[in-house]
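USER: Please consider what follows.
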Amino acid sequence: MCKCAMLFLLSLRTEGETMTVHSSDWENHLLSLADRAYDSPITSSANHIVDAGTLAKAYAHCEAITASNSRSFYLASGLLTGRKRIAARVLYAFCRISDNIVDEPKQDPVSELAQWREITTGTHPDTNDPVAQAWSHVRQAYAIPHIYAEQLIDGVATDLVKARYASFNELAAYAYSVASTVGLMSMHIIGYTGEEAIPYAIRLGVALQLTNILRDVGEDWENGRVYLPQDELARFGLSDEDIAHGQVDDRWRAFMAFQIERTRKLYRENWPGIAMLEADGRLAIGAAARFYERILDDIETHDYDVFNRRAHVSGLGKLRMLPAIWAQTRSL
C-alpha cells in the first residue's frame, strides 16, 4: 500500500468514532500517481524573469478567462484572500487553455498541446503567453510539483485518442488526471496540513469530474464521446444506442440513480479533508464542492434528463447556499 493510502486510513479515525471508509483498487492506483508527483522535485523557473507590470497584466488576463468561463469557480475562488484568490484563477486559466487546445484546437492539437506542455511545465518558459507567464510564477511561488501539471496535460490529451471507458476504474484514472490534479495543485496554493490531505483531494476531484460527466452526457455524445462506464451501462441494459436516442426510461433512471449515489458518497467522504486545509481556504473549497453537488439534485429534479437540458445551479441559488456552507466549514 502506498504511503498516502496508509495515511488516509489512519486519518479516518476521529475522536469518538471511526469512519468506515476504505481505499478501493481504483483509489490505490490514483494514490500511487499522487505519491509520484508529490515526491518529485520542484522545478525552478528563476531564470525566466518577467517584470512586475507584465506579470500584473498576465494575472489580469487569467482572471478574465476565469470570469468568462466558469461562474462557479469564479465565485468560489472569490472567497479566497488576496494572492491565493489570484493564484487559484491563474491555475484555472492554465487548465482551461489546456482543455481548449483539445476541444477547440486552432491547429493540429497534438503539436499544439506538445508546445503548451513545453512552455508551461519546463524550467525556463521563454514565452510571451500571459497564461504561461502567470502560471510559471504561481507554480514557483507555491512550490507546486510540476508532475501534477504533466498529469493534467496527459489527461486532456486522452480525449484525442479515447472516446469510451470500459469500467469505472478506467474512468477514475481519467478523472484523476483532469480533475484531481487540479485539487492537488489547489491544495498547494491554499495550504494544507500534510500528506494525509492528499486522498481527500483525489476523492473530491473524482466527484467533481463525475458530476461534469453526468451533467454533460448529451453534449459529450454530440462530440463523439461517452464517458459513462461501458460495463455499468450494460449492467442496466443500456448501450450507446440508448444514449443516441436520448430517451429517459426506467433503465436510464436506475442507472443515473446509481451513478449519482456513488458520486454523492465521494462528496461525503471528502468533506473531512476540508479541515486539513488552511482556515482561510476552507470556505472556497467547501463552496466549490457544495455548488457542484447541487447539480446532482437538479438532474434528479428534472427526471434524469441530461439529453435535452444542462443541469445547473443559478447564481442566486449559489448565494443562498453560502451561509450554510460557511457554518459547515466553520464547524470543522
The beta strands are 13-14, 17-18.
